[in-house]
Amino acid sequence: LSIGPVRQAGAGAAALTPGQALAAQYAWAFFFGQSFFAAINAVLLGSLLYRSRLVPRWLPTLGFIGAVLLLASWIATRWGLWGPGTVNRVAAVAALPIAAWEFSLGIYLAFWGFKPSPITADM
């Protein structure tokens, strides 16, 4: 979407470098946003939920397992073991636990909500 206006402005050959820079920026944002930050989010939110015991312990544990697998898949993609955006069964299987974590956490909180916190129980 950002390359189109540069091309339509009639910049011609002078728009080649900014167009390539915008395409590279998009590729890196897509590369980090799809898996790396999802794994970091699972570790941060999972550790908070695990320590506070607001949800059953198996939910954050599923998030930790998913984060490790997704981060390993991200590193393998970064090192060139398989290409980004290719249909790869290993990467798809590595993404399943994190998807199950996000889905099950949402379902659990929608139907049962948080448990009473042991931290605030004494107050």
Descriptive labels:
71% helix, 123 residues, elongated, mainly alpha
Give your account of this protein's structure.
Helix content is about 70%, strand content about 0%. The chain is mainly α. Helix 2 (about 15-50) runs antiparallel to helix 3 (about 60-80), helix 2 (about 15-50) packs across helix 4 and helix 3 packs antiparallel against helix 4 (about 90-110). The protein is elongated and about 70 Å long. The model has no long low-confidence stretch (mean pLDDT about 80).
Rounded mean pLDDT score:
81
Task: Report the count of strand segments.
Answer: 0
Query: pLDDT under 50 segments (min length 5)?
Result: none
Name the beta content range.
under 5%
The termini sit apart by: 53 Å
Question: What layout of secondary structure does this protein have?
Answer:
Elements: H1 3-8, H2 16-52, H3 58-78, H4 89-111
Helix pairs in contact: 2-3, 2-4, 3-4
Quick rundown:
With 123 residues, the chain is mainly α.
